[in-house]
Amino acid sequence: MRTHHLRVHPSADRLPREEQLAWRLAEIATDGAEVLPEVADMVVNRVIDNASVAVASLVRAPVAAARAQAVAHPFAPGATVFGLAAEQRVSPEWAAWANGVAVRELDYHDTFLAADYSHPGDNIPPVVAVAQHLAARRGLSGADVVRAITTGYEVQVDLVRAISLHKHKIDHVAHLGPSAAAALGTLLGLPTDQVFHAIGQALHTTTATRQSRKGEISTWKAYAPAFAGKVAVEAVDRAMRGQTSPTPIYEGEDGVVAWMLDGPDAAYDVVLPEPGEAKRAILDTYTKEHSAEYQSQALIDLARRLHRERPEVADPERVASVVLHTSHHTHVVIGSGANDPQKYDPTASRETLDHSIPYILAVALQDGGWHHVRSYAPERAARPDTVALWRTITTAEDPGWTRRYHSTDPAEKAFGGRLEITLTDGTRVVEEIAVADAHPLGARPFGREQYVTKFRMLADGVLDPAEVERFLDVAQRLPELSAEELGGLTVTAPTELLGSVTTPEGIF
């Protein structure tokens, strides 16, 4: 690995582009490094994971609306849209849009947390869309898709390790635009200068505020990463046509670092692979067993254990207080430290409840588990005993858990906390958990079997059994797929299922 020192430069410095971070990221995309077998295997897992959560969201309103927008842009050869027949193709940027929303809607796919937050699986929809569209023209294969996704994960994880966006209230998709552009550069075998300009354009157009994840969280939360993927496709198209980007986009005196991040005196050390070094970042990421914010995954696992072993902690008449001692991020993003009254509102949106650890703990303690639909149902959130227990739960920052959250040592890095429950009779129940059961270091780490099981579970009652088996066969052969077979990287739902949801008419 090599360290790139990032700081602000005045225009008078005339910083050579080869010394700019966007160029270094572009070099990752164009270095031609071989993909390790274990990395290729994990790429397959994440393609299956994305399809799982997309299937489960097909009839949700944001996904239906995005799909309707995509259908209004038919194109040939084009790309597929989750739910529709593989023969029905749309323009690739709109396929990336619709599929990105479907993947993100339930907030149920993979994650990487460090200096910032990320869902690196968001890189996959734009890569697959462009690959399907250009498969025949450029002779693309499943191996090319695997290499591209590997790049996307590497760039996003490297940025997330080094640069905090949330500290400045910038949404984390500002790291996704560049990573998706880099991934597309790898897919298409573009020269470094084209990828450089695509990365710059993608970053410039995806820097938005974190209000999308604050207070009453709207349906836009699912659209934000899809927008970044769509923008990346368009940025690469422009770069291929010779169009340039704001330069230097990170280091300029009016650039991202100087005015959106730590300011003119800022400095970051971004650790990147050496030229030709294998890209391994995907192996440091982790998926979700439960459909909830990642920082709640381990706490759901702890709550379901307490449900079995200490059922009294789920009874609001016996509970005086519940305090979760956890990391700064968990406390201020999904905990009471956010100071969002919506996190205690029984009428709040699903998106808001997904980002409320007090709500999640209350339901998991009472139900002994978590379900991607039932746990968010309005009648579940409004249940009086749940509301009563919910109101007893607060969070507090613990420096030890904050340190572990930011640790670069995989054996120490943790996203859990210590739960201190005080009962009305004075009894104290104190339990802690470091990582989720599904985490690579957890009690039941996810492997191929678990990813396939997750797909089957979420596809049950949604897809025909034959379609489930067809998709799993194609996805698990991804590294060997021919150009003709790339169109099979989608799922087709019964027409009557998609017809059960309608969307209001828009412009298109």
UniProtKB/TrEMBL annotation:
Keyword Transport in annotation: no
SUPFAM superfamilies (UniProt xref): 2-methylcitrate dehydratase PrpD
Subunit annotation: Monomer.
Residues annotated as domain MmgE/PrpD C-terminal: 290-478
Keyword set includes Lyase: yes
One Pfam family in the UniProt entry: MmgE_PrpD_C
GO MF annotations, alphabetized: 2-methylcitrate dehydratase activity
Catalytic class of the enzyme: lyase
Entries under InterPro entries matching the protein: MmgE/PrpD_sf, MmgE/PrpD_sf_1, MmgE/PrpD_sf_2, MmgE_PrpD, MmgE_PrpD_C, MmgE_PrpD_N
Signal peptide: none
Catalyzed reaction equations: (2S,3S)-2-methylcitrate = 2-methyl-cis-aconitate + H2O
Family that this chain belongs to: Belongs to the PrpD family.
Ranges where the MmgE/PrpD N-terminal domain occurs: 20-267
Keywords attached to this entry: Lyase
Annotated transmembrane regions: none
Organism: Cellulomonas carbonis T26
EC number: 4.2.1.79
Protein name in the entry: 2-methylcitrate dehydratase
